[in-house]
Amino acid sequence: MKTYSNKLAAMMVAAALGTTASLPFHVLQAEAAEVPLAAQDIEQATQELSQLRVMQGYQDGTMGITSPITRAELAKMLVLAFGLEGKGDAKTSFTDVNPNAWYERYAAELVAQDIMQAPEGRFDPRGMVTHAELVQMVSKALKRDAKSVDDWAKRFYSEEGHTTRGQAAYLISVAHEAIPSEKAKITSIRALNAITLIVTFDAPLTAENEAFAKAKEDFKFNDGLELTNMPRLKTGSISTYIVPTSVQKPGTSYTLTYKGKTAGTFAGNSAKLDMTEARQVAQDTFELEALKENGVVDYGYVISAYSGGRGANAFVLDENNSADGIVYQIISSGQAREVTITPAGGQPIVAKYVPFTQSTDGKQEPKFRLPEGQTLTPGVTYTVTSDWAQMANPTFVAGAFAPLEIIGAEAISDSSIAITLSEDPGDELFSGRSVELTGADGNKHIATYKYSSRKGAVGVFDLTQESKLKSGTTYTIKPVGEWAGETDAALTLN
């Protein structure tokens, strides 16, 4: 491909843009949200990629923004825009690419990284790229969820559309702003509700900086406020995070220090989350229901990390946390959350959140469990209260819940077993549960449920404290606590 200089390309595009050339691209993009992609947007993107030496023009002095982009051209742009050179594990050879072709090394790099495909060694360098293919390639190159990239592309996207060079430049330019940075700085903070902050950075955080242990070191607040789980990047945003905190004190002035530097202040929010009702789901467990139609959504449906696994339930909230004309309250992470449950005429009991039960099967029903050994008394009325949630129907009358039966156990490995119950318990029963294994030699092991491993009535339990089962030994199974009934189930590790 014959090109002319990037400098000349930038000069020509800048001249076409006039004064808008000085505006940051993300500003133009935000202002033009929901507006069809215009020539000005494409020119701005083209200028930025030209300055980055990611995109070049043709020998005739044009950038060819209305021409269909070829797979060869796109391969080069992706590798250069996202710094992918040298990241592939193996060299790829092609049946339809000259080893000396200008694009060969870019094509080989992307195929090696599974960003582009070359079935049977055929790369098809002159082939056109559909909008759907572009979204998938940019998503893989950026290592960002496809729903976010699809949202960025909505201004030009069509199901059967083929991508022009200008459209590719636009999407890559937007995605380039979403490259994580170790040096990301906070640009704004606001309290969304009593347990949730919305924090925007000038670039996304790296995976290392998102990890809870590291984030807890980096995010520091005054007056006893704490980070309760890792910050989560909102689907569709460039660098805006949902940040869960302990319960804020209404009106208190909080200062957030990030990585040792003051990042900003915000006032504690008194807004409690609107939950529909409390109801019992097991002899020691109850749940709080929230409804999307009431304008409440679990963060699991609107964060980038979970969007791929939530299917049709996942969606995008704009910068005002609205979608389809509804402004949503967001339930942030349930980690470390507590509520109080009080029996009629009795003393209050603190119940703790059951991990990974916050939003399952398209429902928003976080579960809470009584302290070990305590159960709900059938016939007694209980009332649930909270300093972070309010319930339209906070009371229920406890019923009798017979424990399910363990009807089978199988060794998956020397450190994991599969437990089968008499019927599907749902997450509320498996989560947080343990079983005791006793070998013929008298040695005992504890295995705890592996979160999110349930498939119907079967759940995986991992042995604790790095203990191992012995080959050829038969183990009897016993539930720890009264979550399941006595059983004759046994297993032998072959």
- Give the beta-strand count: 28
Unreliable runs, pLDDT <50, ≥5 residues? 1-33
Q: Largest beta sheet, briefly?
A: 8 strands, mixed
Query: What integer value in Å does the Rg equal?
Result: 27 Å
Number of helices: 11
Helix fraction by DSSP (H/I, runs of at least 4) = 10-25%
- The residue-averaged pLDDT reads 90
Name the shape in a single word: globular
Alpha-carbon distance between the termini? 62 Å
Helix/sheet category: alpha+beta
Spatial order of strands in the largest sheet: 20-8-9-18-15-14-19-21
Beta-strand share of residues: 25-35%
Write the layout of secondary structure elements.
Elements: H1 6-17, H2 25-31, H3 39-51, H4 71-81, H5 104-112, H6 131-142, H7 146-152, H8 165-176, E1 186-193, E2 196-201, H9 207-210, H10 212-218, E3 219-221, E4 232-233, E5 240-244, E6 253-258, E7 261-267, E8 273-282, E9 285-289, E10 296-298, E11 322-323, E12 326-327, E13 329-331, E14 338-343, E15 349-353, E16 359-360, E17 363-364, E18 367-369, E19 381-385, E20 389-393, E21 395-397, E22 406-411, E23 416-421, H11 427-430, E24 434-439, E25 444-449, E26 458-463, E27 474-479, E28 490-492
Helix pairs in contact: 1-3, 3-8, 4-5, 4-8, 6-7, 6-8
